[in-house]
Amino acid sequence: MLPDQKLLRIPGPTPIPPSVSRAMSQPMIGHRSQEASDLIETIRPGLGPLFGTSEDVLVITGSGTSGLETAVVNAAHPGDEVLVIVTGAFGDRFAKICDAYELQTHRMDVEWGKAADPEQVEQYLKDHPDIRVVFATFCETSTGVLNPIGEIGKAVKSSSDALFVVDGVSAIGGVRAKMDEWGVDIFVTGSQKALMLPAGLALIAVSQQAWKVIESNPQKRFYFDLKKYKDKIEGNSTPFTPALSLLFGLKQVLELFEQEGLDEVFNRHQLMMKMNREALTALNLPLLTDDRDASPTVTAVRPNGFNAEDFRKVIREEFALSLAGGQQNLKGKIFRVGHMGYSSPADVLQTISLMEVGLRKIGVHVEFGTGVAAAQEVYTNWGEK
Amino acid sequence: MLPDQKLLRIPGPTPIPPSVSRAMSQPMIGHRSQEASDLIETIRPGLGPLFGTSEDVLVITGSGTSGLETAVVNAAHPGDEVLVIVTGAFGDRFAKICDAYELQTHRMDVEWGKAADPEQVEQYLKDHPDIRVVFATFCETSTGVLNPIGEIGKAVKSSSDALFVVDGVSAIGGVRAKMDEWGVDIFVTGSQKALMLPAGLALIAVSQQAWKVIESNPQKRFYFDLKKYKDKIEGNSTPFTPALSLLFGLKQVLELFEQEGLDEVFNRHQLMMKMNREALTALNLPLLTDDRDASPTVTAVRPNGFNAEDFRKVIREEFALSLAGGQQNLKGKIFRVGHMGYSSPADVLQTISLMEVGLRKIGVHVEFGTGVAAAQEVYTNWGEK
Fold this sequence. Notes:
Two copies of one chain form a homodimer. Chain A has helices spanning 18-24, 34-51, 64-75, 89-100, 118-127, 149-159, 179-182, 208-215, 226-233, 244-260, 262-282, 308-319, 345-361, 370-381, and strands at 7-8, 57-61, 81-86, 104-109, 131-137, 139-140, 145-146, 163-167, 186-190, 201-206, 298-301, 321-322, 324-325, 335-338.
């Protein structure tokens, strides 16, 4: 590889587009200046469509987890009964945050690699009518599952008046979301995934129903108090010093979305998912998830006949290509390929072709070109669908 | 002015050095990669000297306020009696966070523009022996006061066994701090001030005495739980996705400190303070603070005979030079000149000379060169001290 070439194909952080990198290098400005207000005003209208909402999207300086905690401490009143649908490591994180706040936390554990079942959620809520908040994960990054948030939202809303809170961290910006239509009350994402930015921003969209719960919530909080952010966004400002370099970058990200068109952005992610799945299947690599449950942003493989960590190591050392390993239960058992954000069908072909070489290097019999050919077929036929 | 030239002379955010800007533009890496660990390992030893501590410094992704809240929820157990020394808007913020957590908050309000009196703190703690935590501000950004943290620390430690928590946000990196010697238990700063970075990192140093209180603290928290950060830093990692672009930048900032030498960095800030104070005095502009209480990083002026906001507006529109206004009580009554971080004596001379022109433009009689000459005198005689 070239000394300065690195191929980052993990499910976040993702590569930064050059124009975004340039935008973030702009000279610093005062955070209470007219220029900063203008920046926030320019960004605001572009965020709602990413979540599928007509509501304002609030921006907190912090990791994705700060956004998840913000959702918990605003949506759940102290001592509330809540349901956390756990389909992997990030559902588990929601549950851990709820535990840290000593909520009465019900866990619905789903086998890792499978999506949650909306009917089961509906029944659970009928059986537990005191549940005030339901937490779910859109794309479960640890398994590559895309949960059916639309159907789960319908199940939540038809069987309870609980708030529905969704972690959209590795989906928003890569997968069509319909917050308002789906009945999502709080939708959270982070900047370092399909939004093509470095980590450091948590974005949170809030429904009118959620605001009622938030406004009367006595839960102790300060930095994560969404009311403070709501009060300020109306004047194109923030309650605390914003991460301005990331906002410079976010403006350019929205410009890139505008240029490509959001429909095409989401279509590209669907295409990359399909290319990956067909290629990996052609290479006899077992996919962790069924097609029905698959995320457009990340694909997990559970290899048999070779060690996932050995494979990742060879790929990294020989080609500077980073793939992700498994987390928690799946540590050492799977590897994950990220295909979101600044990632194209051409990048998928490159990744697959290097994976083929890497497989041969660790002694797995592979007919060169097999996976690539399968991905090429998907790519060339895609327009005809 | 040149179309692309902006002079940012507010007390944060501050200008980003070009090499730091370039460092932040590096391609993204995996946050759990060896490269990320190496980055954190390289940064770690450079942070303690900025605070004057041999302890590890923990890094949280968030605004400065997230660091202040982290200090509160880790140092104070629920219901604790605490004392907040309020010398301006940022002391007030500490008190507001304590109020949000329903601590039994004692406020010691000091006239804005004056420093806190260590003897008064000592007496207060003797009179209120149940106080568990004392909160103070090193540089009160809203007034340009540098509080005598060393003496206050001595007062706290000699009269109580309370923890001593200090907001170092606009001081650390520009003013010599001696955390261990002064008896500071938790010392917080943000990235966008004397550390020459965009906002988005809160840095927190913690004493051994504080760890005992933190480890037994039942206060509900998750993202701000310092134990999580401590557990991870030992393996050169973080509990949540770090703001990697800012860490790339922080590594380069430490490199710049190394090149200049920390003693010289602090000396430069002393020199810039003195140049500003002499120049502003020569221009008959009344300084808000006494010499004894003055901060090396920001200087506040309370003009008589003209309107501070009119002056700031002219300066901004004519020269693209940003000065800060007053906050809360002092809104409209003062203006503030930032001189920290990527700021040199040459920049002070430029700022003073443009301020002279701006004063003439709003109708204030000024003999051109008067302030500049005073600053030049300080500059040329400085070496002889």
